[in-house]
């Protein structure tokens, strides 16, 4: 148990781990935005334009 707590403390104080958390957070936010735009029906074109093709 002591090894786990020391590892946890080292990770908490690590600058690399802090940077990695921000990178993962940014990536997750970008994927959420990407997923929203891919799944949302945001088309504002009139129906007749689709009927012509």
TrEMBL record:
Keywords: Membrane, Transmembrane, Transmembrane helix
Record's keyword annotation contains Transmembrane helix: yes
Name of the protein this chain belongs to: Teichoic acid D-Ala incorporation-associated protein DltX
Membrane-spanning parts: 21-39
Superkingdom, taxonomy of origin: Bacteria
């Amino acid at each position: 148990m002591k090894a786990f707590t020391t590892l946890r403390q080292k990770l908490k104080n690590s600058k690399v781990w802090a940077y990695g958390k921000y990178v993962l957070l940014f990536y997750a936010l970008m994927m959420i935005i990407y997923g929203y735009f891919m799944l949302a029906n945001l088309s504002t074109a009139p129906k007749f334009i689709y009927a012509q093709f």
